[in-house]
């Protein structure tokens, strides 16, 4: 794999850390600013909404900028947002810093997925995307618990300062290692928007929302579920989240390994398995050992869908993958927000802390149904139709990631 993928993975590690570490530091931040925990929770909501909005917005604004330069600008924005959070004198400024950092999230992973795919041979695209996302999964194993520990021991501002430093390292890696990869000639905004006319692109994004939403329906409420149903202590929840991160890491490797060989069968297996495991979680959540195993499986099956779904979007957005790829990253966060809301509804209705698992199972099953629908639609669509989406200046449709060696200087990579 090209070394440039390491630079992208470092950036992904920083982004993953800042996204999830906030959950472990909410009490300290709330106490520091004199606000309630629910109010401090706006730092999580604001970040998620920033990802959803920032993914298409910054991708469109950077439409005429080379992909390498755009990645540099996004990492700079990420560093600025985390520095603002670390130095924020009041809660409003802290929230602003979180939103600024989140704006870079979707576009970074969206554009980074395209660049990663272009750095390798067509039959290794999903593996390259998975390599970049490894940074995000490792963040949940190392970055989040370590950042939480530092924040609780030294102060939460130190955590965000360290994350900003990670962003600087990622930025320098991009400058040094990622090749100058201008946008394909003829790529224009209207050409990028044409990708959304393809029902396969929309179906893949819907699978993203529902599939990953199934994961977060359960994980959002993992703390009260494990303490009330399984009998774990509050301190043990951190290690259960580490276990979830290990599952994410393993699932990402699985998805990257097999998505290039059998993308749709992999989606059938992972989404179907996820639906079953989440349904069983309503029972296993009452046993410590079984609950821990289930959490590992939810992380693995959930994140095994990420490389194939991201590759599915790239492949179907013929010749105009950048905006579609970024919007799909926003779709992951939209799924998170939707699932957390639905999970909260069933808990409020008095159905218990394990009830969000039924919501997650239903969402994953719905995603599986969309996968079968997508495959059936693809079988009915003549192959020639898939090649009919030209970009704005009439450049031939080229599948995302199937870029020749001339597009990426040989020794340099993502």
From TrEMBL:
What Gene Ontology cellular component terms go with this record?
plasma membrane
* Chain ranges of the Major facilitator superfamily (MFS) profile domain: 4-379
Give the transmembrane ranges. Answer: 38-58, 70-88, 100-121, 133-154, 160-180, 201-224, 236-254, 266-283, 289-309, 330-352, 358-377
| Record carries keyword Cell membrane | yes
- Keyword Membrane tagged: yes
A GO term for molecular function = transmembrane transporter activity
User: What is the protein's given name?
Assistant: MFS transporter
Q: Which SUPFAM superfamilies match?
A: MFS general substrate transporter
- Which UniProt keyword terms apply here? Cell membrane, Membrane, Transmembrane, Transmembrane helix
Top-rank taxon of the source lineage equals Bacteria
**Which species does the entry assign this protein to?**
Streptomyces vietnamensis
């Amino acid at each position: 794999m090209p070394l440039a993928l390491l630079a992208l993975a470092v950036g992904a590690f920083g982004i993953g850390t800042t996204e999830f570490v906030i959950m472990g530091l909410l009490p300290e931040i709330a106490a520091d600013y004199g606000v309630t925990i629910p109010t401090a929770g706006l730092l999580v909501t604001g970040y998620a909404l920033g990802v959803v909005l920032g993914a298409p917005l910054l991708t469109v604004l950077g439409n005429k900028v080379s992909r390498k330069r755009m990645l540099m600008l996004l990492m700079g924005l990420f560093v600025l947002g985390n520095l603002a959070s670390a130095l924020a004198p009041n809660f409003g400024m802290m929230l602003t810093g979180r939103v600024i950092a989140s704006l870079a999230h979707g576009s970074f992973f969206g554009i980074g997925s395209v660049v990663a795919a272009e750095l390798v041979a067509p039959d290794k695209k999903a593996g390259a995307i998975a390599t970049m996302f490894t940074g995000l999964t490792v963040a949940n194993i190392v970055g989040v618990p370590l950042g939480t520990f530092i924040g609780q021991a030294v102060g939460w501002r130190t955590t965000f300062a360290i994350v900003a430093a990670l962003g600087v390292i990622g930025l320098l890696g991009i400058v040094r290692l990622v090749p100058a990869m201008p946008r394909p000639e003829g790529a224009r905004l209207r050409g990028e928007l044409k990708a959304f006319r393809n029902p396969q692109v929309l179906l893949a994004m819907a699978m993203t929302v529902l599939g990953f939403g199934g994961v977060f329906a359960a994980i959002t409420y993992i703390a009260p579920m494990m303490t009330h149903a399984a009998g774990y202590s509050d301190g043990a929840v951190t290690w259960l989240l580490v276990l979830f991160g290990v599952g994410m890491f393993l699932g990402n490797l699985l998805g990257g390994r097999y998505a290039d060989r059998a993308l749709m069968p992999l989606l059938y297996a992972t989404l179907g398995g996820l639906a079953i495991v989440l349904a069983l979680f309503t029972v296993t959540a009452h046993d410590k050992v079984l609950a821990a195993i289930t959490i590992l499986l939810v992380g693995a099956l959930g994140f095994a869908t990420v490389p194939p779904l991201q590759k599915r979007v790239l492949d179907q957005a013929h010749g105009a993958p950048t905006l579609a790829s970024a919007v799909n990253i926003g779709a992951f966060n939209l799924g998170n927000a939707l699932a957390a809301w639905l999970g909260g509804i069933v808990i409020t209705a008095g159905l218990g802390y394990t009830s969000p698992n039924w919501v997650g199972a239903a969402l994953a099953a719905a995603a599986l149904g969309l996968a079968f629908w997508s495959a059936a639609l693809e079988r009915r669509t003549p192959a020639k139709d898939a090649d009919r989406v030209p970009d704005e200046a009439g450049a031939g449709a080229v599948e995302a990631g199937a870029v020749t060696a001339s597009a990426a200087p040989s020794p340099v990579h993502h």
